[in-house]
Amino acid sequence: MKLMILLGTTIVGSLGAWIGASMDHGNYFGASSLLLGTVGSLAGVWIGYKIASSMEI
Questions:
Q1: Where are the beta strands (DSSP E) in 11-57?
Q2: Domain extents for the chain?
Q3: What is the chain's mean pLDDT, rounded?
Q4: 56 — pLDDT class (breaks 50, 70, 90)
Q5: Residue partners of 45: CB distance under 8 A and separation at least 6
Q6: How many CA atoms lie within 13 A of 50 on its CB side?
Q7: Which residues contact 56 (CB under 8 A, 6 or more apart)?
Q8: How far apart are CA 57 and CA 37, in angstroms?
């Protein structure tokens, strides 16, 4: 379960930060990048938990 949550947080959080940075012209320390990275990480925890619980790990 820990691995799925870690993977979900890493992948979805990085994707959220990348989308935020692309909206802010490549600024990875901008407000939109930090906000979307945080939201993506929280969503990644939920997604990883759901995947792990459906696989019964």
A1: none
A2: 2-55
A3: 95
A4: confident
A5: 5, 8, 9
A6: 8
A7: none
A8: 27
